[in-house]
Amino acid sequence: MPRERAVAGPNGTLIAPAGVEWDAIRVSRFPALQALKRLKSGSVLVDPTPSNPVLYFFVAPGSAADWHVPHTIALGATASVVLPPPSRQAPPGPYWLVPPGTSLAIRLTSAQELRAALAAGLTEAPAYIESIRTTAANVLAWDTGLPRHDDLRDTLWLLGGHLQALIHLLGDAARTCPESDTARASALLAIDEARVCLAASPGSGLVSATRHARSLAQELKQLCDQYQALTDARTGEPA
Fold first, then answer.
1. Of 113, 122, 119, nearest to 57 (Cα)?
2. Where are the beta strands (DSSP E) in the chain?
3. Comparing C-alpha atoms, which of 118, 227, 237, 233 is closest to residue 169?
4. Between these two residues, 153 and 76, which has the higher pLDDT value?
5. What is the mean pLDDT of residues 129-138?
6. 3-state SS assignment for residue 46
């Protein structure tokens, strides 16, 4: 990477321009992790922001120009990405899931292979929905005792990631339905409500954060129900 094109960021990071030696593909966590199972090479960056965990894949410069893949955003010549040092492979902050070489020598992923891996991964959505239901049910079943702080932090991260991924999955499913479809309207309303919950602050105390976790779990349950309703509507099965 030409260092003169990057700007020093906080905590040892670099704010690097896309479109020079690579374009970046930002992918919601669930589709990204499913795609990773099918990919053999390439550096992968994680932004673990609690409300919207995403992964970045790096493809050849120019690939973003004709990139149109659900659950992803292509970052080309007008965008920048915050890159942590190659040795940073855990949070807090952005970190490498698959690190680059020394001096931030980014290893590229084939754009064609990434497209195929993302498409294949989304066929596993029904199993993912069931896993979300289990996670949400476990949180909603918490007894009156409060979880440990570390457990709660990890749970909030997990719930936020699931909620963001499901918002994308449900949104894509809703857009395949006619605008007059009541299931579509109900799904879009549920998405709006989930985004409000996702944007809310968990608060500074253990009690308020636990309450927020339960709210996220309830929203997940609602979105799972909406996704199932849309799936049934498209296949003609009774709800």
1. 113
2. 7-8, 14-17, 23-28, 44-47, 54-59, 72-75, 80-83, 95-98
3. 227
4. 76
5. 88
6. strand
- Dihedral of the alpha carbons of 212, 218, 220, 226, in degrees to the nearest 10: -150
Whether the predicted pLDDT of 50 surpasses 70:
no
Residue bearing the bigger pLDDT, 179 or 43: 43
pLDDT of amino acid 1: 45
Tell me the average pLDDT of the chain.
84
Residue 105 structure tokens: 């020598």
Radius of gyration, alpha carbons of the chain:
19
pLDDT of residue 239: 42
Provide the phi-psi class of 96: left if phi over 0, else alpha when psi is between -120 and 50, else beta: beta
How are strands ordered across the β-sheet holding 7-8? Answer: 7-8, 14-17, 80-83
User: Prior bond to 100 cis, omega within 30?
Assistant: no
Q: Per this entry, what is the length of the chain? A: 239
- State the Cα–Cα distance between residues 141 and 143, nearest whole angstrom: 6
Give the tokens for residue 17.
């321009």
What mean pLDDT is predicted for residues 122-138? 81
Pairing label, strands 23-28, 14-17 = unpaired
Residue 7, CA atoms < 13 Å, CB-side half-sphere? 6
Residue with tokens 């955003």: 73
Contact 181, 233 (CB under 8 A): yes
Is the model's pLDDT at 2 over the cut of 90? no
Distances (CA, A) of 231 to 40, 125, 127: 32, 11, 13
Give the residue-averaged pLDDT of 40-62: 86
